[in-house]
Specification:
Structural class: alpha+beta
Number of strands: 5
Number of domains: 1
Number of helices: 3
Radius of gyration: 15 Å
Order of helices and strands: EHHEEHEE
Strand order of the largest sheet: 1-2-3-5-4
Oligomer: single chain
Strand content: 25-35%
């Protein structure tokens, strides 16, 4: 990505666990190795797509998840759109930091500049934004 260049790309995958890898590869390829946010974006998209696969109706037959990456030289926004489910993304109380579940959104909270979710028709969109560290 060169100075002043913006990118926007989307990928729709079936709501299956093996598609988490496809989401990571897509995010990394879209941003490229030179983008300062690539590594963190790949990690966080993995967490959000995993949540979609585990907790949304996208895991049902015919369900899909759409990943949209919008990047600029100084940041990135990633949206993960799924079929929603019976709950919404909530950060769990860190009573037991070693518990198996609940660490994904903790990573998103700790590493993203901002994150949230919204409903769009019958879909749930969970998103995060990253800001590149200023170069010295």
């Amino acid at each position: 990505m060169t100075a002043g260049t913006a990118i926007r790309a989307s990928l729709t995958v079936p709501g299956y666990p093996d598609q988490v890898h496809a989401a990571r590869v897509f995010t990394g390829t879209t941003l490229g190795d030179d983008h300062p946010c690539t590594a963190v974006a790949v990690l966080l998209v993995s967490e959000l797509v995993t949540n979609s696969v585990l907790h949304s109706n996208s895991r049902l037959p015919g369900g899909t998840i759409t990943i949209t990456v919008t990047g600029t030289p100084d940041g990135v926004r990633v949206e993960v759109r799924d079929a929603g489910g019976t709950s919404v993304p909530l950060l769990k109380d860190p009573v037991n930091a070693l518990a198996e579940g609940g660490r994904g959104l903790r990573l998103v909270t700790d590493l993203a500049a901002r994150w949230d979710y919204r409903h769009d028709a019958d879909r749930l969109i969970t998103w995060f934004e990253l800001c590149a560290e200023p170069s010295s």
